[in-house]
Amino acid sequence: MIRHCILLLLLPFTAFGQPALQQKADSIVIDFFGASNFERYIHQDEQPIQSAFNQYCFTYKLMWPELSGKTHLIVFALDANGELAPDDTPRGLLRVNATDTIWTTKKEALRKCKGISHSLKRRTMKLVENLAWEIEGKLNFRGKIYKGRLRVDIPSGRVSRLFAVPWD
C-alpha cells in the first residue's frame, strides 16, 4: 500500500488527468496580469506539486526586463475542482489593468519621487514583494520634513508615502 502511494506522488502532473487545472491556473494569472503580459513576461516556474489535501500548488515567475534582473514570484494553490484553495493565501497575484502595458521603470519611479520629496537616498531603492519600487528619504508633509519611504506601484505608477508622524 505504501509503495503505491509513493509511486503516485512521483508521477508527473499530467498523469493525474488534470490538464484542466493547468488551464485554470493560467487563466487566473491572465485575469490578474492580462493576456499580453502573461505571454511576454510570465512563465511557469515548475510543474504543479500535489499536496496531501488534494490541492495543487502552482508557481509562476514574472520576468519583466525593467525589474533590474529580479523576478517576482506568483504562488497559489488550487483544489481538485479548480478553485483557489480556501486554506492557502495566494502570493504575488496583483490586479493589473489592461491599459497597464508599459510599467513604471526604476528611472521613472525615481523621477516621480523626486517631485514630492525633500531628499532621497538613491542607493536604498529596491523592488519589494508586491511589485513596487521603494526608496528611503526625507518627505515633505504639511510643511514639515519626516524620514520615511516612498513606494511607486509598478503597474499603475501611483506613489504612496510611508512614514510615521509623531503626535504632539
Which of globular, elongated, flat, extended, rod-shaped describes the shape? elongated
Sequence stretches where pLDDT stays below 50 over 5 or more residues: 1-17
Q: What do the pLDDT scores average to?
A: 76
How many domains is the backbone divided into?
2
The portion of residues assigned to helices is 25-40%
**Proportion of beta-strand residues:** 25-35%
Summarize the structure in short:
With 168 residues, the chain is α+β, with helices and mostly antiparallel strands.
Topology of helices and strands:
Elements lengths: L1 H9 L8 H15 L1 H7 E3 L4 E2 L4 E8 L9 E8 L26 H11 E12 L3 E10 L2 E10 L5 E4 L6
Antiparallel strand pairs: 1-3, 2-3, 3-4, 5-6, 6-7, 7-8
Helix pairs in contact: 2-3
